[in-house]
Write a structure and sequence with these properties.
Length: 504
């Protein structure tokens, strides 16, 4: 029987590629495929030594590094469920994730130990280890003592590989259960569709706590045997230095607008590139056009989400149509329906639903919520509003869910409104997204309150204490009252129009 463990598929490629370089960092460190395989094996042994068994969660909030990558691979290899956390998350956010995911082990940066120690105790997490971006920490100390690689655990394909959280328009964040086969099948499709090969060098500047950098990027390279230029984050100077030695880049639209904003970016940087891929947020037609004009490359836009991995992609060969997210990937069914889940005619706008091996296993400990988001015939309702053209190209035209995407990160207004409403001097608030030249959308809080008792800076400072910086409104504006419809619902579209030019 074929081992359904995603790592077994990666390992077959690692063994084939042997001593070839798997990745090179900005400061010139290199790791071969064999070394990466050995590191993952020792990492899995190190985790198992803490008594972890298959299916146990490992929560990870660390900066991107080679060791962090090995931690992900070690979890897959040992059959432990990888639970990555955005490095920006603060106490309140972390407390919820740890209590809900119930990990057996957590890995954090040493600087956050004082914060995480009590949170782990509260959540019943028995082991807390540290891993710093320079490779130091208690996890690394223990790793240095391990010589025996852990075997690649045999698993069925539907075994859980990762747990990633997504907030919602109401209620608490939901844990999205992704299986080894969800990840493998989707990455295998992408390797095919995007033509990945051993000759490719992917510029990897994305964080590895979200689907894009973790499953899309790493899945494509590890299933194809491509190598990587491994950057700790999107630093414009480092990206420009690394680009000439890369053949493929993946990024959120902000990466492309930042490159375009740099006058010296041009032909010399893209001499070896064969493909620029964008996703996680809408790519403006203007960015697509400007990028083509500057570099001659038509950015390939694709569409996905945490629950489904990737659903559609513009073609490698064939027309990459600006403003669309392309065609359904092989094995992924995409349809547009009305609110009763009835398919709509070609060209009509409705709910975008998907079905296929890419779609997740359900929400962690929320069977009711899972049932609500699937139709009777097994389609997942994405919460995106879409349209499909006569020739099959999908466009995302809006969102049924109240969500802002800023620099490729999702922010749910409800979460911010609940916090703002609690602040002194605030009666009520509405949080919206408005156009932002760098982040695509920026979060703005529209507040009704006592301008004598509070002000913009006070509200922003208070929120910075409580939530990740990326969720904090870039601006807070005061109004006498919020516009409401006859049902009493705040008309956010009017606020978005009124404040459209507030930050751009
Ligand atoms: C950082 N800040 C942000 C932000 N990122 N604010 C809003 N939106 C963001 N995305 C905050 C910082 O904390 C800081 O706040 C201030 O804004 C300025 O920061 P910066 O130095 O300009 O930010 P930087 O570190 O350069 O990060 C920007 C970024 C990063 C765009 C490079 O956010 C990023 O890498 N985004 C990619 C996210 C991603 O991987 N998404 C994929 C999700 S998967 P202060 O207060 O400290 O000054 C998914 C599925 C799919 O969606 O389809 O792929
Ligand atoms: P996440 O919950 O972080 O996985 O975000 C997924 C959401 O990002 C999707 O439901 C879409 O709303 C949005 N998204 C991802 N890719 C694109 C894209 N290419 N164009 C428009 N929206 C996108």
């Amino acid at each position: 029987m074929v081992n359904g463990n995603l790592y077994a598929h990666f390992q077959a490629v690692f063994q084939r590629r042997g001593d070839a370089p798997a990745l090179t960092t900005a400061d010139g460190q290199q790791l071969s495929f064999t070394e990466l395989d050995q590191l993952a094996g020792r990492m899995a042994s190190c985790l198992a030594a803490h008594g972890l068994v298959c299916g146990d969660r490992v929560s990870v909030q660390v900066e991107k590094s080679l060791s962090a990558l090995a931690l992900y691979l070690g979890c897959l290899r040992g059959g432990f469920v990888f639970h990555p956390l955005n490095t920006g998350y603060k106490e309140q956010e972390l407390a919820y994730f740890l209590t809900n995911a119930e990990p057996s082990l957590m890995v954090c940066d040493s600087r956050d130990l004082a914060l995480l120690d009590p949170l782990c105790a509260e959540a019943g997490v028995t082991t807390l280890l540290t891993l710093n971006s320079d490779g130091s920490g208690t996890l690394s100390d223990q790793l240095a003592q391990v010589s025996e690689p852990h075997p690649v655990v045999a698993l069925p394909g539907d075994a859980l590989a990762a747990l990633l959280y997504s907030s919602g328009t109401t209620g608490q964040p939901k844990g999205i259960m992704l299986s080894h086969e969800n990840l493998r099948s989707n990455a295998a499709s992408l390797v095919d569709c995007w033509g990945f090969s051993e000759q490719d060098v992917l510029l990897h500047a994305l964080p590895i706590f979200h689907v894009h950098g973790l499953f899309v990027a790493l899945g494509c390279v590890f299933l194809s045997g491509a190598s990587m230029r491994w950057l700790a984050g999107f630093n414009l100077a480092e990206v420009m230095t690394a680009l000439p030695s890369a053949t493929v880049m993946m990024g959120v639209p902000t990466y492309y607008t930042r490159l375009l904003a740099e006058p010296s970016f041009g032909d010399a940087h893209v001499a070896n590139m064969r493909l620029f891929i964008s996703g996680s947020a809408p790519l403006l037609v203007e960015t697509f056009n400007d990028f083509e004009q500057r570099t001659g490359h038509r950015i390939l836009e694709r569409y996905g989400m945490t629950e489904t991995n990737m659903n559609t992609s513009n073609p490698l060969q064939g027309e990459r149509r600006a403003g669309t997210v392309g065609l359904p990937l092989p094995g992924v069914e995409v349809r547009i329906t009305d609110d009763s889940d009835q398919p709509l005619a070609v060209g009509e706008i409705g709910n975008l639903q998907v079905r296929g091996e890419n779609v997740f296993q359900g929400y962690w400990k929320m069977p009711q919520k899972t049932a609500e988001d699937f139709t009777a015939d097994g389609f997942f309702n994405t919460g995106d509003k879409g349209q499909i053209s006569e020739d099959g190209y999908v466009s995302i035209v809006g969102r049924a869910k109240d969500m802002v995407i800023s620099g490729g990160l999702n922010i749910y207004p409800k979460e911010i409104e609940l916090l703002v409403d609690e602040l002194p001097g605030v009666s009520e608030s509405a949080v919206i997204g408005v156009a932002h030249a760098d982040f695509g959308e920026a979060v703005v809080a529209v507040v009704v309150g006592d301008a004598e008792a509070t002000d913009e800076a006070t509200i922003i400072a208070a929120l910075k204490q409580q939530i990740s910086a990326f969720k904090v409104p870039k601006r807070v504006v005061f109004v006498d009252q919020l516009p409401r419809n006859t049902m009493g619902k705040v008309q956010k579209n009017l606020l978005r129009e009124q404040f459209a030019n507030l930050v751009s």
